[in-house]
Amino acid sequence: MAAKSQPNVPRTKSPDGVAKDGAAPHGQWGRAWEVDWFSLASILFLLLFAPFIVYYFIMACDQYSCSLTAPVVDIATGRARVSDIWAKTPSVTKKAARLYTLWVTFQVLLYMVLPDFCHKFLPGYVGGVQEGAVTPAGVVNKYQVNGLQAWVITHLLWFANSHLFFWFSPTIIFDNWIPLLWCANILGYAVSTFAMVKGYFFPTNAEDCKFTGNFFYNYMMGIEFNPRIGKWFDFKLFFNGRPGIVAWTLINLSFAAKQQELYGHVTNSMVLVNVLQAIYVLDFFWNETWYLKTIDICHDHFGWYLGWGDCVWLPYLYTLQGLYLVYHPVQLSTPHAMGVLLLGLLGYYVFRMANHQKDLFRRTGGRCRIWGRKPEAIECSYTSADGQKHRSKLLVSGFWGLARHFNYTGDLMGSLAYCLACGGGHLLPYFYIVYMTILLTHRCLRDEHRCALKYGRDWERYTTAVPYRLLPGIF
Question: Does residue 100 or residue 20 have the better pLDDT?
Answer without folding.
Answer: 100
